[in-house]
Amino acid sequence: MNFNIRRYKVEGTRKLSNYFWAILILAGSIGFVLIGFLSYFRQFTIMNFISFFPQGIIMIFYGIIGILFSLYLWLIILWNIGSGFNEFNKSTKMIRIFRWGFPGKSRRINLYFKFSEITGIRLEQKIGLNRIQSLYLQIKNKSEIPLIKLGSISTYALLEKQAADLAKFLNVTITI
């Protein structure tokens, strides 16, 4: 085992919640399109309450929009957008941040930094309706690179531990 290299995997869009929403939106959208078309043919007694113009047309329109949005969700799940890793190499004194992007010229996103460019590690926690826990790598030019996405680590204590280990490994300070 090489103690001079640390690699942290970063989760992308292949999360249970994304699968849930993609399935739910697809099912609902197909239902909207189906009801819209059935209102035209008046096949069921329930369709007597929905006239084709304008309700049926609007339902078909919203159903198609929902199917397109569901298709987008399925594609980002397939491509696993945002997944990758953070690699810290003490032997070469380099940091590599790799992420998968959308297909095309920029599909592979590689960022390289020298240890000398790093000024610190920043922890962020925002408590509210949508809890945000983040870990950032601070660079000399005042920019910050997110290292850990929301939901990757379950508790703030684990995030603090990882930040402390990483700061010790890089020999930099932690800011909150």
UniProtKB/TrEMBL annotation:
Keywords from the named record: Chloroplast, Membrane, Photosynthesis, Plastid, Thylakoid, Transmembrane, Transmembrane helix
Transmembrane spans: 20-41, 53-81
Membrane topology: Multi-pass membrane protein
Classification via InterPro entries: PSI_Ycf4_assembly
Cellular localisation: Membrane; Plastid, Chloroplast thylakoid membrane
Function (record text): Seems to be required for the assembly of the photosystem I complex.
Family: Belongs to the Ycf4 family.
Protein name (Swiss-Prot/TrEMBL): Photosystem I assembly protein Ycf4
Gene coding for it: ycf4
